[in-house]
Write a structure and sequence with these properties.
Blueprint (H helix, E strand, L loop, with lengths): L2 H32 L11 E4 L8 E6 L2 E7 L19 E5 L8 E4 L4 E4 L5 E2 L18 E4 L2 E4 L3
Antiparallel strand pairs: 1-9, 2-3, 3-4, 5-6, 6-7, 8-9
Length: 154
């Protein structure tokens, strides 16, 4: 008869230790994430010369295992009024070449817009959706300096 209370006590201790271990593990991951322990997703740093890209032309480059589209916007294809026109590099759009449905986007020069290849999503030259229900084209970390696009964080 004395074995049942001992067994129950051992089971209770084991369950409490398992719960405590799980809580401690979760707390360690949460603290690491909140205070800089999350992996840096800035990707590698690459430089792309923009000197040969004329207004209205598009170039696609690979960066961090993803395609990135670079559009040299003409004045009539720049951001909608009030959107990004005050930005220092308003003549350029740098965005991941995937739309809201996850499919590649292509530039339709005659229509001055991007079109997602597998759906109806369309985006203006600023990467903003022309219809509702889609997010804007995602922009990788970048900056432009002296006709050189620097993709990634230095």
């Amino acid at each position: 008869m004395s074995s049942h209370p001992d067994l129950r006590l051992r089971l209770r201790v084991a369950v409490k230790l398992l719960v405590l271990t799980g809580v401690a593990g979760f707390a360690a991951v949460a603290v690491g994430f909140l205070f800089g322990g999350a992996p840096d997703r800035a990707g590698p740093v690459i430089r792309v010369s923009l000197a040969g890209l004329a207004p209205g032309e598009v170039r696609t480059v690979g960066w961090d295992a993803r395609a990135v589209v670079i559009l040299h916007r003409r004045s009539k294809t720049r951001a909608r009024p009030g959107a990004e026109e005050a930005a220092p590099n308003a003549q350029w759009l740098v965005a991941h070449a995937r739309g809201g449905e996850g499919c590649p986007v292509i530039w339709e020069a005659e229509r001055h817009q991007f079109r997602e290849t597998c759906g109806d999503a369309r985006y203006d030259a600023a990467g903003q959706p022309l219809g509702s229900g889609y997010p804007p084209l995602e922009q990788p970390p970048h900056r432009i300096q002296d006709d050189v696009l620097i993709l990634g964080r230095e």
